[in-house]
């Protein structure tokens, strides 16, 4: 009897292999051969699922987005509006190993999108989702009455820059920008909006 293969699970396994190769060796070393080996497949099998690198990267990054969305959908938000917002924003930051792998893949993807036009629409979409989360945060705090009179547009941009900056620096300097530091800086910023 032939083996039944769950193609979606196989694609996820390949995408996770991409993240692992990026983590260990960087995007430039993310070759078909290395990804296939990491995923336990032949190069031909990998090409069956993803005929080119752009399609593989796009799928890998959509998987990051989907996992973040699932984590957020499964969260139980309790506490003050600021505490709930912080828990939401922490899902976008490398505060644990899973999110660190996702964030490394995201930044590698972002850099690659500068030279690969096929990746740009997804990069723009993902940036808009992060921006939307920051906008939701500021608007939620404003509606709750917890926010003093401020320029909401400026506060959204400031929070968006902070989230991106924390993510980047946590990847570049993990010994300095730890999960505790991310939490502390984010808490302090949200407290300025109260």
TrEMBL record:
InterPro entries in UniProt: BetI_C, DNA-bd_HTH_TetR-type_CS, Homeodomain-like_sf, HTH-type_TetR-like_transc_reg, HTH_TetR, Tet_transcr_reg_TetR-rel_C_sf
GO molecular function, one term: transcription cis-regulatory region binding
PROSITE patterns to which the protein is assigned, alphabetical: HTH_TETR_1, HTH_TETR_2
Transmembrane as UniProt keyword: no
Keywords for the protein's UniProt record, in alphabetical order: DNA-binding, Repressor, Transcription, Transcription regulation
Keyword DNA-binding assigned: yes
Residue ranges the UniProt entry marks as DNA-binding: 31-50
HTH tetR-type domain mapped to chain residues: 8-68
Descriptive protein name: TetR family transcriptional regulator
Source organism (scientific name): Bacillus swezeyi
